[in-house]
Amino acid sequence: MDVGIVSDTHDNREVVEAAAALFDGRVDVVVHCGDVVAPFSATPFDREYDFYLVRGNNDGEWRLQDAVRSFGAYLGEFGELSLGGASIAVYHGTSRPIVDALVGCDDYDYVLHGHSHRRAHETVGDTVRINPGGVSTGSGDDEPPAAVVLDTDTGDVTFHDLR
Known about the structure:
The protein has about 160 residues and is of the alpha/beta class.
């Protein structure tokens, strides 16, 4: 199964549209690891794929839940998914010790998170941690926003620049 992963889009319409279009016709499911921010930034993901979202630390509008629930699943602070036979934990990533605990507990094949705006793809034991990165913070050394396509059948992880 092909899973699209994105995080920390922060109301950046260009990035949101690019991610939604990248995933269209390419993936079965999209997982957003939080910090969508406003409902208008979630609705472009109302497409032919299933959509899951966890709450980020900047997702202050409670109407975001209703917007997502009209076409997808709002998982709250944390979600557990079984996709393509893979067990997946989804958390925004606000607390790095929690991310590390999820990776280290050996309960999940994949731990998906965001928050740091830094891309990550590493294997710890039998668990793969993926952070697609996010919208640049303007510090000058930030990576461009990215989306990830994960193939749960092969384990392939591909980062796609969104600008």
